[in-house]
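Bench notes, afternoon.
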Amino acid sequence: MALSPNGKRLYVVNTPDNRLEIYKVRKHGLQHEASVPVGLEPVAVAVRSNNEVWVVNHLSDSVSVVSVNGAVPHVNRTLYVGDEPNDIVFAGPGGSRAFISAAHRGQNAPFDPQLTTPGVGRADVWVFDANNLGGGPGGTPLSIINLFSDVPRALAVDASGNKVYAAALNSGNQTALVPLAVIPDTGESDGGIPLPNVNHAGVPEPDMSLIVKYDGVHWVDELGRTWDDKIRFNLPDKDVFVIDANAATPELLPGDDGFFAHVGTTLFNMIVNPVSGKVYVTNTEARNHVRFEGLGIFADTTVRGHNVDNRITVLDSDGAHPRLLNKHIDYDNCCGPIGSPEAQLSVSQPLGMAITSDGEVLYTAVLGNDKVAVYYTAELEDDMFYPDAVDQVPVSGGGPTGVVLDEANDRLYVLTRFDNGISIVDTDLMEEVDHLTMHNPEPDSIVVGRRMLYDAALTSSNGDQSCASCHIFGDKDDLAWDLGDPDGDVTPTPSNIKDFLGVGDVDFHPMKGPMTTQSLRGLDNHGPMHWRGDRNGEHLGPSAQPNGGAFNEAAAFNTFNVAFPGLVGRDEQLTPAQMQAFTDFQLQVMYPPNPIRALDNTLNAEQQEGEHFFNNNLSFNNFVDNKDFTCADCHVIDPLGNAEYGIERPGFFGGDGQIVTAEFSQTFKIPHLRNLYTKVGAFGYPDDDFFFNRPGLPFYDTSHQGDQIRSYGFTHDGSKDSPMRFFNAFALTPDGFMEFEKMRKVAEFVYAMDSNLKPIVGQQVTLTKHNLGTVWGQINLFTQRAEAGDCELIAKTRLGPVELGLYYDGSSYTTSFWALPDIGQLAVLFLAKATPVTFTCVPPGSGERLGIDRDGDGHRDGDELIAGSDPADAFDTP
C-alpha cells in the first residue's frame, strides 16, 4: 500500500485480482474511487507524485506505470525487469529514479544468468530514470546492480533519498553441510554423526550428511568438532546492501559500507527511521542446526515448537542488532493448549512496517497472528521492550501483510491477505474502527485453506510457529533440516517402486538425516510426498495412477497432520476438517512459469542437445549388465497429459510420483525438476566417493572456492553444487562417464524444464501511439502463443470515460461491451492512437474473466459500468 503525497488517496495492490485499487481518504474512512488492471500478481506499489504511481507485478516480471490524474486511471507504460520482482522505491536526484528488486534471471534480462558459474550474485536491483524510460518494448534501465546474495525482496530508502537499502529474502544463516561421503558411517565413536546413531528399537541409522554452523572462526557441529577441511567455500552472509542512489550510475557503496551481514535467515521487509537513519528489518532466524523433531524422550532437545525466532534487526553504523520479539515464551515448556494468555502475546512472521514522522513509533503487520504490533523505537534499539497486549491491535480479516500510516487523520491502514481486505485502525484509540474488502476471484477453498499455512495462533501452542515459518510463502527457505525422530519406528516403503538396478528398496528409517526444505507448490499429480515419499496414501489400497494408494496426493498431504504436534508445536493435531481445508488449498498452489525457457517455449541449441541426451542416452549401458535406462525413464517429462498412463491431469515435469530403489543408503522418491533454477549458488562441496568426484574436470576443482552466496544446492540434502554432479554419477556412456560439456548441456536443459504454466504466461507490453514499431514483435509473439494454447491474450485500454477490456478468441477480440462487435487486431492497434493499450498473456482459462467479465457473472464489465452495477460484484448485475 502507499499514500499519495497530498494524503488524499490510498493505493492498494489487489494481488489475486491483478489490479491496483484506488481509495479516496476521508475523515470518516476510505471511499473506493477506481480499479486499474495492471500485471499478474501485483505485490508492491510506490508513489512518484500525486499523478503517477508504479506497480510491481511479481508474475508478469514487469512494472506498470499508472497515470492517476485523469477520469480513468490507466497504465501508460510497462517496464521489463528480471524474474519475480518484489519491491520498488523512488530515490536519487529529486526522487527521479525507480529502484526495483528482482531475481538475477528472466527472459527479459539483458544478460546471461550464468547458472553454472560460482560466485555470481543471484539478486539484482534495476534502476530506471523515471524522466527518461528509454526505448525498447520494456524500457531501458539506467543500471542493473548485482547483489552478492540470493534472490531479493525488500527495499527501503532513507529520508534524504540518497541511500537505498536492498535485502535478500532467503539470505541463509551460515549453516552448511558435510556430505555423507566424507563422514565415517560408523557413528560418533569413529568421528561420524553425533549420537544417537540408532532409533529406540536399536536399528542403526542410514548413512547421512551432517549440518554444521560457522561460529566466526570454524565450521563446527553440535559437539564442537571442527569440519573446516570439508567446507571448501566461505559464506560471508551478506544480507542487506546499501546503494548510492545519487551516483551518476547508481552503485553499491564501496567496501564494508556497501552491506550488512548476519541480519537474519529470512528477511521480509525494511523501513528507515526518518530521524536517526537507523534501519529496521523484520525477519526470522532459523534453528536448523538443531536436530530432530518428535514427541518422545528426545523432544526436549529438538526443534519442536521452536523452529525459528521471530525478530526485528536494527541496522546502524555499528552493524546489525537482532531483537527477539517473543521474549515472553518459555521454550522449555512446549506445548500447552491453543490460545493461552502467553500465546496471545506472540508474534509470527512480522512483515510490513510504518513509522511515525518523529521516528519514535513503529507499527508492524504480523502475518501469523492477525494483529499489528506496536514498538517504541528507543526501546527496540536498546532491547528494553517486552510484549504487552496494550501494544498489539487485533485486525479482522486476518493475515496482515502491509501497513500505511496516515498521521494527518490518526489512522493506520492495514492490508489483510486472508480476506483480501483493508482494516482501518484509530491510532489514538489503538483499535480497529472499520474494515472493507476488495474483490477476490479466489474460490472459497483457497481463502479458507490459506490460513492453515500461516496462522501460528491456530497451529502452534506458543503462537509463534507455523508451516510458513520454513515453507516461506508456500515455497522453501533454502536450508537443510535434520528432522529425524529417534523415537520413531522403521516403516515400510510403498509399492510404487521403480527398480531399474535390481537392488531393492530400503525401509524408511525415522532418522533420515538432513534434507532440504521442499516447496509446497506443484504437489498435485505428483504422488507421495517428502524426499523419500514416506508421506503417502498407501493405506488406501494398491498404488496406481492417477489416485490409487500412494499416488493419492490428498491422502499424502493429510498425513502431515502429525507434524503439528511433533514439529510446529501444537498440543494436538488439526481437526480433520481443518487439515482437509489445508490440503484443498495447498494442492491448488502452482509453480510459476520457468524464467530460463524462451518465451516461445522453444529450447536453444545447447538445451536441445541436453534434452536429446536426457531422453536417449542409455545410462549404465555396458557398465552394469542389462540395466539400461535413460534419465527420462525415471524423470518422466509429459507436460501435456500423462500419456504414459492414458489420463488427463496436470502433467509430469521430471517425476511421475514413483519411488526409486536405494540410493545413498536410503530409498527416495524420484523428484520433479521444475524448480532447479532456484537452487543455484552453492559451490565448493567435496565428494570423495567414486561417482560424485570426477578428477580432471574443471567444474570439480577441489580447491577452496572462495565466497559463495548460499550453502545448500541439489539432491535431497543439498550436497551437490550442480545437477552436473548428479548426471556424472548416473549418466554413463558405453565408454564411461559423460564429457564435461555434455553434462553442462544437460544441466542447461533441466534448468529450462517446462512447468505447469508456459513461459509466456504473465508477459505484458503497452502499445502507445509512438511505439508500434518497437512493440509489434512482442504483440505478434503474444498472439502466436495464444493461438498455440500456451496462454490466453487480453488487452486493456479506455473507451471515453470507462475501461475497455478485450479478449482474444483466436481470430478477433471480444469486447467488454455486448453491443460493441468483435474487432480485429488492426482496430485494436488503432485504439492506441488515442490511449495506451496494454496486452497481457494470462493463464489458460482465465482470459474471459480477466479481459471482459471480472466477476464472472455473465455480464460484461463495460455493460455493468454503463448500467451502474459493480463489475467486481457477482451479486450486483444490470
